[in-house]
Amino acid sequence: MSPLAYTALIDPLLKGAHRAVVEHVPVRARVLDACCGPGALSRRLAGDGREVLGVDLDTSLIAFARERARRRSIQGLSYEEGDVTALKQADGSFDVCVITMGLHALPRAVRRAAIAELRRVGRRVVIVDYAVPLPRNPAGGLARAIEWRAGGEHFAGFRDYVRRGGLDDLVDGDGSGRQRLALGVLELVVL
Ligand SMILES: C[S@@+](CC[C@H](N)C(=O)[O-])C[C@H]1O[C@@H](n2cnc3c(N)ncnc32)[C@H](O)[C@@H]1O
């Protein structure tokens, strides 16, 4: 999916979840938005004195997010290409790391490594991803359809994520502030 299509079709569906994430990020915090995609959450986090770095593996998404931030003259927001499983940043570089809709797309072998990296560079980690099991309602059906349409390795990652119990398989029950969002389709957890 192109950055523009993602922004037009997916960003509106994630608006409430992104708002919930921002509530867990103090003003003036140094924040890492991992797997930032086209940058909707990082743009939302910027402001209130926060210093935000968006990181994504996909250079075209980074270029898109950077251009949007430049055009809107958003202060305190920067982007760089990077792998969430091997971040360049030093231990404790951020007050908060956020990752929304990033974990389910990763191969299982590196999901825990990604969380470990976020815990290494950040004091707090806020995760939003699919709630498992997904609800059997139209919102759950839409989520399945979006993932199926993404296809390839992304869909394989999603199927494996669901089969293994989603965040339950990854956070060992040590998360707090756990809440369902988006008609029960998404779940937020704070580590
Ligand atoms: C479904 S998008 C989520 C985008 C955004 N966080 C949001 O809430 O809309 C998943 C993103 O993860 C990125 N990604 C996948 N593997 C990655 C990795 N190993 N390191 C960094 N980003 C990765 C993809 O390029 C994609 O932009």
Put simply, the count of helices is 7
- Can you say what the CATH homologous superfamily is? Vaccinia Virus protein VP39
State the low-pLDDT regions, or none: none
Helix percentage: 40-55%
Order of helices and strands: HHEHEHEEHEHHEE
Taking all residues together, what is the mean pLDDT? 94
Tell me what portion of residues adopts beta-strand conformation: 15-25%
CATH topology: Rossmann fold
Strand order of the largest sheet: 3-2-1-4-5-7-6
Largest sheet features: 7 strands, mixed
The radius of gyration computed from the alpha-carbon positions, rounded to a whole number of angstroms, is 15 Å
CATH architecture descriptor text: 3-Layer(aba) Sandwich
The termini sit apart by 30 Å
Which CATH top level class fits? Alpha Beta
Number of strands: 7
Shape: globular
Which structural category do the helix and sheet elements fall into? alpha/beta
User: Could you tell me which ligands this complex binds, including any ions or cofactors?
Assistant: S-adenosylmethionine
Number of domains: 1
Give the topology, please.
Elements: H1 3-9, H2 11-22, E1 30-34, H3 40-45, E2 51-56, H4 59-71, E3 77-81, E4 94-100, H5 108-121, E5 122-130, H6 138-150, H7 152-163, E6 176-181, E7 186-190
The structure holds S-adenosylmethionine.
